[in-house]
Design goal:
228 residues, alpha/beta, Rossmann fold, 3 domains, four-stranded parallel beta sheet, 8% strand, globular
Length: 228
């Protein structure tokens, strides 16, 4: 972090800086992608409603590319400043295993080290004597792609109890957010706590997470109705 004034990414200078940092990537971002990315970097919630094939995955990849670039060289945003942890991380949720694995592969191709964890991958990796959850704690992983059922596991709870991991989370993303209703909310929280109740603080944190998810889902449907 440099000693200059904080960068406001939604400003004209912020837009230009985001484009500059992404200029060496193998694609040219659309204006509407940059508009969304800078809001994310300004710590605002973003709901992206765009056509299929329009680059929605960029809303996960591009902020992380920018954050990783700044973490590697804070001087690239001089004369401005912006706090980025040494090992920025994204926590990304996908509704299907195929989509999750595809996006993890795409993120790796774009220079964002990512792993996917779902029931199929866990079975394959554990059969081979490897533990994907151990990799998730590693500083080498910048994006953790999860299937919804992994959110109720003890391994994920341990991840949330890892202060070193949590303090590095810079981006929380949910793909195909309109599927959240089918995941369930209150039932998921209660089922997760049924066998081995977490601490009151952890239970409250889960309620907060799902509340944010459902707020985002409501925002999605409100926007969809306004566009119809």
């Amino acid at each position: 972090m440099t000693d200059g004034p904080p960068i406001l990414w939604c400003s004209q200078e912020g837009h230009a800086l985001a484009r500059k940092i992404l200029s060496n990537k193998p694609y040219v971002p659309h204006d509407y992608q940059i508009d969304g990315v800078v809001h994310t970097l300004d710590h605002e919630h973003l709901v992206a409603v765009t056509p299929t094939g329009s680059g929605k995955s960029g809303y996960h990849a591009m902020p992380m590319q920018i954050l990783l670039a700044i973490a590697n060289d804070p001087c690239i945003i001089s004369p401005y400043s912006y706090h980025v942890p040494k090992h920025p991380k994204a926590l990304l949720i996908y509704p299907t295993n195929a989509l999750e694995e595809q996006q993890a592969e795409n993120l790796n191709k774009l220079g964002v080290p990512a792993i996917a964890i779902n029931s199929n991958i866990l079975h394959t990796e554990r059969t081979a004597g490897r533990d994907p959850w151990k990799c998730a704690h590693s500083d080498e992983v910048a994006a953790l792609c999860l299937s919804p059922e992994q959110l109720t596991t003890k391994e994920f709870e341990r991840l949330l109890n890892d202060e070193g991991f949590v303090k590095n989370i810079c981006l929380w993303g949910i793909d195909e957010i309109h599927f959240i209703e089918s995941w369930g909310t209150q039932d998921v929280i209660e089922d997760a706590a049924a066998e081995d109740p977490p601490t009151p603080a952890r239970f409250a944190e889960w309620r907060s997470v799902w509340r944010k998810c459902t707020q985002l889902e409501k925002a999605f449907w409100d926007m969809a109705m306004n566009l119809s």
